[in-house]
Design goal:
protoporphyrinogen ix oxidase, domain 3, FAD/NAD(P)-binding domain, single chain, 470 residues, five-stranded parallel β-sheet, 3 domains, 21 strands
Amino acid sequence: MASVVIVGGGISGLTAAFELARHGDVEITVLEADSRLGGKIWTTPFAGRAVDCAADAFLARVPEAIELCGELGLREHLVTPATSRAFVYCDGALRAFPERTVLGVPTDLEALAASGLVSEEGVARAAEDLTMPGEPWRGDESVGALVRRRLGDEVFERLVAPLLSGVNAGDADELSVAAGAPQLAEAVREQPSLIAGLREQLARTRPDPGTPVFYGLPTGTQTLTDALAHELGRRGARIVTGARATAVDRHRAHATSRFAVRVASADPIEADAVVLATPDFVTAELLGSIAPGVAAELGEVPYSSVVMVTLAVPRAAIGRPLDGSGFLVPRAEGLLLTGCSWASSKWAHLDDPEVAVLRASAGRFDDRRALELDDADLVEALLADLATTMALDPSVSPVATRVSRWPRSLPQFRPGHLERVSRWRAELDTECAGLTALGAGWDGLGIPACIRQARAAAERARRHLALPSS
């Protein structure tokens, strides 16, 4: 029986293992360095409820996560946010995002004008996108370059940058359009107007304003990775936690094995194929001896560190209605806080008339202040920012707090990233056929993107092993 070792027990590694296991005829070992599976998907009890420590939803417009939930028997449990309204803290007040925006880019100029987020001059400048000449988009550039050129600085700095900086914890002026904002890339591939292209896109993907944008699970996103682990166990896969892989070697002692995965404090594991579903900097260490060129470039991919502080506070202590899913804070406001999800308003299953659950985020690529504070000082600082932004009474103590730190968790996609990824894969195919690498640092952030990559990685492993295709 052919053997595959999968390094990494997050959503990418578990999905790749599941995809291989459900077609049989392969011996699968999953190695996870941590004591738990799931990676950056983690749900723990908080204030009497299951509340996510990181991602709490996935996009509805792409099918991968929905399909996987269906395969795991979770489709009927999916829920949508109770509200799609969101805010930006700007000029000392929370202002609602205009309706029908895509990654912060407005498609309804009347709604943009009514929002108060940009000046009359800013709205007029954005409207120029509809008539401004230009060529259909080719190649890659930064989101800042594209949006500033087409819609002006105000729309970028007050809408697009806060949203994408919130997603990537980086600088949207340096973020690759192709890798970090593919919806924008798709919108301008056939014609130059970003607004016109996004209007067409919305008409295809969300023809009804009530079409869901996100889905979640009432028991938390970890339900998905737990279900994958359960299925893998049922299908005979071997899952080992607390097993840190240190290197991958070519192994030529036996004709049936091409690789040996070295594991700290354990014997190497031989395999006919290897899947590395690890952060780029970990993958770089693992590939150092067999693909040094790819390893060197992977080691240079920048990552942001972020922290999420979950708070349960009396609703009576909040001096404004929680009439949306939360808000973002632009860099220019100078706060430690980068955004706050009003979880108990966003999700009906977390609603409580007495207590509000808030998920406050901090940390950007070039801002490590939050990471350098201890838990107590961090909570105090974020409570002060919440008092400033959403009128949280500073004299009222939270009912519960939880600090979730995510060091080096979000890769920063610079322009040209996808071309580099294509080259890395080609080099791996040439230098070490049978080994494939994937993860958020390769083809994009988000649960659906990781699932899509994992299925493709499993298919490459099947082809290498001459196993039946799915």
